[in-house]
Design goal:
Low-confidence stretches: 202-207
Number of strands: 3
Oligomer: single chain
Number of helices: 12
Radius of gyration: 32 Å
CATH architecture of the largest domain: Orthogonal Bundle
Mean pLDDT: 83
Structural class: mainly alpha
Shape: elongated
CATH class of the largest domain: Mainly Alpha
Helix content: 55-70%
Distance between the termini: 42 Å
Strand order of the largest sheet: 1-3-2
Length: 247
């Protein structure tokens, strides 16, 4: 799909010697032709026909003859890539920039949309124990469901696990505390355990907690709250309607 608009570089336009030397009618015609050329196929080109160019410029054939040389000085004619057409090299450059940006956005969206499946992670990473695997998978789920910042690569998950092992010194209870800290603080990564967090009463951080279950329960609570709000709104709207009130 063609971009519906093009970037208009004001400084370039006002400082262009060709534009500065144009008459008012020529400037108006030039702008009309640029806009039309943006919508043409190939983009930035126009038919090399004086009758058509005069009509597209919104001027009479007589006026076109007067301003023709001024306007066409900004277009390239008889190029082998565009037979029987004229084109504006600056507009073509802007078109290429626009297309490249659109392509980059599209590729970025595709990359963003791709998310790691749980089995991909489990098959690719060598966990030392089932408990370690459950803990990491819970953190993966938390990143995806709660933060909306899912891991994009296996390498990212492995890096997180390596750091967690290093911070905990291989102690699984400490690994749990570090992960719990990240979830409580809504962090994307894992970090050295804060002294204040480590001193919290044990009952606030029960061992063996099912982090994935907690994340699911939190999401479900948010969904039910939203559903309840919508239901209440519908009831109020129905009461207003039955009372014959207009708001």
């Amino acid at each position: 799909m063609k971009a519906p608009a093009f970037a208009f570089y004001v400084r370039d336009w006002l400082s262009s010697p060709s534009v500065e030397l144009m008459s008012g009618d020529a400037v108006k015609a030039y702008m009309y032709l640029l806009c039309r050329a943006w919508l043409e196929t190939p983009r930035a080109t126009l038919p090399n026909d004086d009758r058509i160019l005069a009509a597209l410029s919104r001027v009479t054939p007589e006026k076109w003859k007067e301003i023709r040389s001024e306007v066409l000085s900004c277009f390239i004619q008889n190029h082998e890539d565009y037979p029987n057409r004229i084109y504006n090299d600056r507009l073509l450059e802007v078109s290429n920039i626009s297309d490249n940006r659109a392509l980059n956005r599209k590729n970025k969206t595709k990359t963003k949309a791709k998310q790691l499946a749980a089995n991909e992670i489990e098959n690719a990473i060598a966990f030392k124990s089932d408990s370690e695997k459950r803990l990491i998978m819970a953190f993966v789920y938390y990143r995806k469901a709660d933060l909306r910042k899912p891991f994009k690569t296996i390498r990212g998950v492995q890096s997180c696990l390596n750091k967690l092992r290093k911070l905990s010194g291989g102690s699984f209870p400490l690994m749990e505390k570090i992960v719990q800290q990240s979830m409580d603080e809504e962090w994307q990564g894992v970090f050295e355990l804060k002294e204040s967090f480590n001193k919290k009463p044990a009952q606030q951080r029960p061992p063996g907690v099912n982090f994935e279950k907690l994340a699911r329960e939190r999401r479900e609570a948010e969904r039910l709250q939203k559903s309840s709000t919508e239901e209440t709104k519908q009831k109020i709207d129905q009461q207003i309607k039955e009372a014959g009130l207009n708001v």
